[in-house]
Amino acid sequence: QLQLQESGPGLVTPSETLSLTCTVSGGSIISSSYYWAWIRQPPGKGLEFIGTIYYSGTTSYNPSLESRVTISVDTSNNQFYLKVSSVTAADTAVYYCARHHRPYSNWRYVDYGLDVWGQGTTVTVPS
Amino acid sequence: QSVLTQPPSVSGTPGQRVTISCSGSSFNIGRNTVSWYQQVPGTAPKLLIYNNDQRPSGVPDRFSGSKSGTSASLAISGLQSEDEADFYCAAWHDSLNGHVFGTGTEVTVL
Question: What is the C-alpha separation between A126 and B12, in angstroms, rounded?
């Protein structure tokens, strides 16, 4: 059974870079029709899509975060990564990684949702 | 700020049927499929509905989804106490080139 696990520092200094790793187990990150995503949830608030990556390295980012976010992948270690630069207290959140099912059908990509999630990791940026 | 709008809360008594609406635009729901997620506080979200009305394996058939134009709905029939959670709709947004979530709806079982 596919499992995802986030890891990384729980406390990040303002203006520094937040770095997280998502380790995929029970299956390969090299999988057609599936992308790999990062999502975050500030305390008491809703879900925010950060971005997504395909095993080939193709990425897509939330425009509101694009200038500070980098998502990368390491197929040899079955991991993908998130970096958020110049963090502030507003970046305090639970960060989730997830598998994003996006098959190509009838000449376009179809979004079938985020079907496997990690348990989430809390990142705090003090004000 | 979310581009998909949901009511902040809905409530019902055990056994009742409740519905949650999700309003979007031609850039998201109007052109793409809708997903729904259930999140029990303190835990990760869980995919409840995909492709507008499909249930992943293991999701009870009490949960059903529908879509019409630029709006979608999630219905929960035979409401149970274990259904208390936050529910989010989501869809691909063409101009933002990303998966966007709704504002979220808290379901309370009275």
Answer: 39
Between residues 80 and 109 of chain B, which touch chain A (CB distance below 8 Å)? 88, 90-92, 96-104
Contact B45 A96 (CB under 8 A): yes
Convert the pLDDT of each residue in A37-94 to its tens digit.
Answer: 999 999 999 999 999 999 999 999 999 999 999 999 999 999 999 999 999 999 999 9
Q: Quote the strand ranges of B24-104, DSSP E.
A: 34-39, 46-49, 63-68, 71-76, 85-93, 98-101
Instruction: Find all residues with CB under 8 Å of B44, minimum gap 6, and list them.
Output: A96, A117, A118, A119, A120
Distance (Å, whole) CA A74 – CA A56? 10
**For A120, nearest residue in chain B (alpha carbons):** B44
Residues of B in contact with A100 (CB under 8 A): 99
**B44 and A CB contact within 8 Å:** yes
**Per the CB < 8 Å rule, is A62 touching B104?**
no
Convert A81-103 to b/e letters by CB count within 10 Å (16 or more is b): bbebeebeeebbbbbbbbbbbbe
